[in-house]
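Support case: zinc ion complex. Customer-provided input:
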Amino acid sequence: MHIVKVNLGDRSYDIEIGTSLGQAGEQLRGLDLGKKIALVTNPTVKKLYGQRVVDALKAAGFLVMSIEIPDGEQHKTLDWANSIYTALLINGFDRKSALVALGGGVIGDLTGFGAATYMRGIPFIQIPTTLLAMVDSSVGGKTGVNHPMGKNMIGAFYQPMKVLMDLSVLKTLPKEELLAGLAEVIKYGVIADEALFAYLDKNRESILALDPDALTHIIRRSCEIKADVVSKDERESGLRAILNFGHTVGHAVENAENYTMRHGYAVAIGMVYASRLAYRTGLCDASVPERVERLIKAYGLPVNLAALSRKPSVTELMDTMQIDKKAEGGKVKFILPKKIGEVVITKEWEEGALREVLEK
Ligand SMILES: NC(=O)c1ccc[n+]([C@@H]2O[C@H](COP(=O)([O-])OP(=O)(O)OC[C@H]3O[C@@H](n4cnc5c(N)ncnc54)[C@H](O)[C@@H]3O)[C@@H](O)[C@H]2O)c1
Ligand SMILES: [Zn+2]
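Agent response - structure generated as follows:
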């Protein structure tokens, strides 16, 4: 088992990579928790892993209640957060009672928000079951729900007390979900670690075959990089923005597809265009966009706008980017690579260059 520490003063916590679901009870026993735990999950994950976690928690002496949220992003809402509050109130949960999220990013974000707000904050534990949740959403403390007018518009920064990852759960994850998570792993390579990028290139077959050592390596490095960034800038006043590499164009792509394309796929496309913009801006040499595109393609992820169900106009994409919530002082900040393993946050890019890159 590998432990990655997230250093945030008295809110520091461990990410345990390579534990087993059956040990969840023992791992939580060491924390300062009351007796009551509510396990929040969805029917898909519950059927596969719910009982194992419930049994483990009960064996460790906890009183366990399950809360089921229907599967899907459309249920990451205040209404479903409210259903969590109601279940907790009916069952007499107090400030020491804990919420455990068992699922992907949707369950993690919703449960975390519930934990942040129920009685002004109760203990929260994440057991992520998608690759995306393992490398991204379960680390860093962003929790929240969607509003009809925008994704993730209601939320709180709220850190879990622990994150437990049993990598064997990835065996049941649909391939597209795995790839969506891998796009974020590739992102970590580009923004912070050329060796990770090279590892992803060299070990593609073992990664896609879910070899435990290969998975452990890429998940550990991803968590270390995100934990490092978050511990330096928890609330995104600066550095944390580098995690948005590929996300500016990515969001415009998701928007153009009415959010039917997986986030990771849109980010994959966004990373290729951002890398090209970096080259076009003179920040990096031509090998950077080439390598980024080649690796993304090798994993079977989309690399350009041709992957969309319809061709959006460049103006439409640019319009969406301007209203992107990261727009500050009138000009969008781009995260652009200087080389594989290093990016800059910059407003120094030309609109014409972006247009050209998107048109090509
Ligand atoms: N908080 C953050 O910092 C952060 C970062 C990135 C993304 N997010 C959020 O994460 C969400 C996306 O998360 P996601 O990609 O995990 O999607 P998801 O939670 O919808 O899970 C994807 C699908 O996989 C299923 N599933 C989960 N684990 C499984 C398993 N082990 N085997 C089989 N099926 C399984 C789920 O039921 C679901 O149908 C979005 O809402 C996004 O906004 C949050
Ligand atoms: Zn992302």
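The two ends are 46 Å apart (CA to CA).

Case will auto-close in a few days if no follow-up is received.
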